[in-house]
Amino acid sequence: MLNTRVFLVELSFDETYYYQSIIIDQKITELVAEQQKNDAKHAHDRSEREQLKEDIANARKQKESISKALEKKEKLLANVRTQIGQLKANISMKQDEMGTELVDHLTPEEKDLLQRLNPEITELKETLIACRANRIETETRKAELETNLSTNLVRRRQELEAVKVSGETDKLDAEAEAKKQELADATLLVEDVTQQLKRVSGSIAERTRQLGKIKDEKNKLKSLEESYENTLQDEAKELEQLLSNRNILVAKKEEYLKKSRELGPLSSDAFDVYYSSLNYVPSFDSMRIWCFCCCTRFPILLGGMFFCYCYHLNLFELTGFFHSANYRHRRRNIKELHKMLHRCNEQLQQFSHVNKKALDQYVNFTEQREELQKRQAELDAGDEKIRELISVLDQRKDESIERTFKGVAKHFREVFSELVQGGHGFLVMMKKKDGDQGDDDQDEDAPRVADMEGRVEKYIGVKVKACSPFRNICGVNVSFTGQGETQSMKQLSGGQKTVEILNLLIVDMIRRLADMANTQFITTTFRPELVKVADKIYGVKHKSRVSNVEVISKEEALIFIEQDQSHNV
């Protein structure tokens, strides 16, 4: 029981310190917050004070500028007043002179005085101009100095005075102590750096001696390198010489190969002629042939010609062509061989115009001709099939045209006989055959006859033929009385023409009832009632004798119709 009480007492004692520490922390937090507020307020006051100082300085500057301007204005006012006084004096003088009598001539004394005063006036004017220039220059310099004083020096003086007033003695003492401590640290640092400098100087001397040794070795190596470079240059020159010789030999080789290719295959007759000129028939066992392609000396005889293993024609080595002992005593000298070569070249020049590749070209052209003949046969077969297809399609197309035309012509006859009692009207198909345009007088219901090529005659249009009940009248003639009297379309009245048009419209309406949906009507009109119900309107415009079709609006079309009607009126 006693131990429990002691524990409770100790616990209460610890709780007391705990709560006291919490209270102290809260006070510290409040004091810190208050200090922050005071610091913020102090900073705000300081900024306001600086702003007020700047405002005061600006006000002073403004005051000084205003005072200077006021002084200038006062000086200007004094000058103006002086000028006003002078002008008033001149006015009074002129008024006094106005009351006196005019004098035509000056007295001799006045003339002498005028002559003396004119040079003085000129000198005084020049002096006045110079004084004005000096005054302007002096005023400009004065303004520059005043500007410099007000913008730089006065501001700097104010800043120094502010620093002087705001300076505190304790702060300056602390700064002095800090500077002394910095000086002591700097002195120690200088001593340390001095010792390091001595060590570095000794190291530099040692490195300098080592550098001298390295330079000596470098010079030796450089001299050795120069000797090697000289040797390398000499070898490079020799190599270039060898390469140039090699290129020359390769060029010669290419030239000889080209000549051998241009020469073409030689027959055995050429060798027989050459051997007969030498009066010697060689033995294949004793001769050697040199090939410039595969570098072989083995004779191979194919078809009367000598070939090597690479199957190129051999060029004979003239200086060592035969190694047989039987031919050595017959060998000719170089001059004779050059003469023979010259004669051979002259003979070859006579055949320079001959095409050496004629045989190859003949073979190629023969193959191309056979290939083209095959292609021509294929194209002819295709053309025949296409013509057959075109003929079938033309026949089907003309049959469709005939079928449609028969139906329209039938309705036209029926409608015309009902509209015109006693008259007869027909639709005649206009054809074009052998370059002529004529009417087909045969019955429209009869089948069409094909031409010599198996194709139906071409149709170029449809026209109206009307006949009386007594005789047929071909052409565009109509009969409205039924008594044989016919008239051309130009002789018909407006009502009769209207009947013809009405007949065609009724036939078109009958045909339209059998058409599919989505039918379009395309008309040429100058009537505003048709324009108002149209879905799309096209206008034909002429410019520079060229017509253009453009889509126009209803408003433009109506305006055009109104203008046309007013023009006709």
UniProtKB/TrEMBL annotation:
InterPro entries found in the cross-reference section: P-loop_NTPase
Keywords associated with the record: Coiled coil
Coiled coil: 42-97, 176-259
Residue intervals passing through the bilayer: none
UniProt name for this protein: RecF/RecN/SMC N-terminal domain-containing protein
